[in-house]
Structure formats: C-alpha cells, structure tokens
Task: inverse folding
C-alpha cells in the first residue's frame, strides 16, 4: 500500500532555525494539501496544490512558510526562522480530482520548537 | 462568526452500547460533511461522507445523519468496542468538490469501556 508518506515524522529544532518537511502523496493523486494541527484542535487548512500549481493559501501561512510541489508529485513545506508557536503536527493529504471529496491523510510530521 | 462545535467533553460509554457524537455548525453552508477517526499521534482516517441532499448514510456499524435545517450532523457507532476508542473529527466541505478543502471541528474523544 502506498499511502501518503511524510518525512520526518518528528523534528525538534531550536527557535530561529529553518525546517523542511516532505510529503509524498498517493501516486496519481493530483491534489495535495497541507494542514496544521495543535493539541486539542482539529486540523487547520494551510495550502492546496492542483498538480504543481499552488491554488490557495490560508492566512495562517505567514511569510515564513513556503510550500512547493515542483513536478506535481511530492511537496515540501519549509518554515523559516521557526518560533515556538510553530510547534504543531503538520499533516499532508492528497486526493484525486474525482475522489468524491474524500482526502487521504499521512501520519503527520511533529514539530517541536525549543 | 463561523463555528464548528463537537461534544466538548470526552464521551465515555460501555462496550456494546451505541455512541452518538454531535457536530453543530454556524454560518457555514456545507455541500458535504465528513467524519474522520484520529488515534493519538496519527493522521486522521476517513470514515464516512454525507452530502447536503442526503439524510443518512451507513457503513457497517457506523451511521451518519445530516440535517441542514438544524445545521447538525450526528455520528453513531453501534455495538461499540474498546477498539473504537479514539478522537472523532467532523469536517465540512463548502465548495462542492472544486478543491475538496475541509474545515474541521475540534473533535470528540470517545472512550469505550470494556
């Protein structure tokens, strides 16, 4: 089974450092999403790609955050100059265009900023 | 303001009983609503989707209802088992599938006691 794969699963970084997360969606899924989830909350939408085009970005995605999907396959989410408030689980999800609205999540990448 | 509210307290039930979880929303017009299961430290797993023109959906021991007049969805697990213990998230989709972007509630923690 080739579900949505995220790497790394856990990252501890010092405040001010840059971090990058990678997401490999289910193959042939042309839609890819990034969400953020903090303890006790539901996932919050960050951004969405259709193939390589980033079509929507949330206001939550500050200038320190950048996401790419250069060839329409895997995606990266980079956080520059991390802050303690960035500590969260970063979830990637994917779906085919004709999924009937279902999206499939990866296991998430936990970020702890110390 | 826009809100999605789920049972604020954890739900504790006895094995074999039916668990009923609620999802109420304010100032949204969802085209569909989904329920996900999330285990600690894991990504959400899709369970059921119900569209605005559907009243009820079933899948094995799961049942979802959707009342757009009351702005409420109910999620039932019949013959509950300790293995059903998890956090259950409801999520709204407003755009009818153009992006499949979801807006999540905060989740309800279900604990099924043996």
Result:
């Amino acid at each position: 089974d080739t579900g949505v794969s995220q790497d790394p699963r856990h990252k501890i970084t010092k405040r001010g450092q840059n971090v990058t997360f990678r997401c490999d969606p289910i193959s042939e899924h042309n839609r890819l999403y990034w969400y953020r989830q903090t303890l006790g909350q539901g996932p919050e939408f960050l951004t969405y790609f259709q193939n390589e085009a980033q079509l929507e970005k949330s206001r939550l995605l500050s200038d320190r955050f950048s996401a790419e999907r250069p060839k329409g396959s895997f995606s990266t989410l980079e956080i520059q100059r991390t802050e303690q408030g960035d500590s969260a689980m970063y979830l990637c999800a994917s779906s085919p265009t004709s999924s009937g609205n279902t999206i499939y999540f990866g296991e998430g990448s936990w970020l702890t900023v110390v | 303001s826009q809100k999605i509210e789920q049972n604020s307290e954890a739900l504790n039930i006895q094995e074999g009983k039916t668990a009923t979880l609620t999802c109420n929303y304010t100032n949204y017009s969802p085209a569909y609503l989904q329920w996900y299961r999330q285990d600690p430290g894991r990504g959400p797993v899709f369970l059921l989707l119900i569209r605005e023109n559907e009243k009820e959906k079933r899948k094995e021991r799961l049942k979802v209802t959707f009342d757009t007049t009351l702005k409420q969805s109910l999620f039932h697990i019949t013959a509950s088992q300790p293995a059903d213990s998890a956090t259950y998230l409801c999520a709204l989709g407003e755009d009818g599938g153009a992006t499949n972007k979801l807006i999540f509630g905060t989740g309800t923690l279900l604990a099924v006691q043996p």
